[in-house]
Amino acid sequence: MSPSDSKTFLITGVSSGFGRAFARAALEAGHTVVGTVRGEETRAAFEALEPRRARALVLDVTDFDAIGPAVARVEREVGALDVLVNNAGYGHEGPLEETSLEDMRRQFDVNVFGAVAMIKAVLPAMRQRRAGHIVNVTSMGGFITMPGISSYCGSKFALEGISEVLAKEVKGFGIRVTALAPGSFRTDWAGRSMIRAPRRIPDYDALFEPIRKAREEKSGQQAGDPAKAARALLKLVAAENPPVHLLLGRDALKLVREKLQALSEEISAWEDVTRSTDFD
Ligand code: NAP
What residue stretches are annotated with the Ketoreductase domain (predicted)? Predict the structure, then answer.
């Protein structure tokens, strides 16, 4: 790669899963990566990946007041940021009635407001430079839904919508925005990272327990390969005209297509009612 093709990435959540795979691939391609971690041990492990171009930043994305100064320091010490990847996030599982408001707020704090705070921190410099790419890792759960993950899907639908609006707002400044929506990938998402609401209402057992069991059994066996997702990310950021939405994985493709088809059929089935509400 020529030095002019080399980019500086800021990736949140590089301790495992997608974040680690994205960082590894970007480093291998010759880019510089600043990655956020939440502990000293993970900081050292990350920086050991590449002694000069891997830099760890200890930051919890819900520490909103710390984000602006942390990003400003990165820009001063490492240089202008070309790509922000809002990857940090987790899944919360539990029927809505069993989910505390506090747990749902926490899900949105990490998956939505953490990403928004990061975006707000990088935008002024990107806008000034008339360049940059913001990649928000959403999920196929930002399009499709299933019982037991209302907090997660709600947060990912929100991030999809925010990304789409932002893409329209900053396009004129030369800043690109992509919502990257993976299907099921082999990461720590359904394992150590998932928060599971304590079960207390037996009425939901028949619907929810098989879903919970299937997710537990599938953890570690998912079809999606994070290293291949990382190759897709590098292709995305190198593209002249990157898409605003990009799905990753055959499961995402199938399920999202089915969802869009079903949505279109439902809109048509109720079209007369929809049309009936305007003033004469
Ligand atoms: P993962 O292996 O569990 O990685 C999650 C990363 O996010 C970890 O580095 C974790 O750091 C970090 N993180 C969590 N909360 C954080 C916070 N408050 N502040 C800073 N960092 C935080 O799972 P993953 O699958 O790679 O998840 C990455 C993203 O992909 C998430 O947004 C997830 O929703 C999305 N996603 C995953 C899948 C899938 O099937 N795997 C599918 C669609 C979307 P710690 O190590 O400190 O906890």
Answer: 7-183
Q: Output the pLDDT for position 5.
A: 86
Nearest CA to ligand 1 atom 36: 139
The ranges assigned to domains in the chain are 3-275
Six-digit token string for 25: 């691939």
Give the pair of three-digit tokens for residue 57: 């930043």
pLDDT in tens, 35-77: 999 999 999 999 999 999 999 999 999 999 999 999 999 999 9
If DSSP codes are grouped into helix, strand and coil, which group holds residue 83?
strand
Domain 3-275 CATH class label: alpha beta
- State yes or no: is 152 an active-site residue: yes
Which of 9, 143, 152, 189 is labelled catalytic? 152
- Other C-beta atoms lying within 10 Å of the C-beta of residue 97: 11
87 lines ligand 1 (CB under 6 A): yes
CA-proximal residue: ligand 1, atom 9 (nearest): 13
Read off the pTM: 0.98
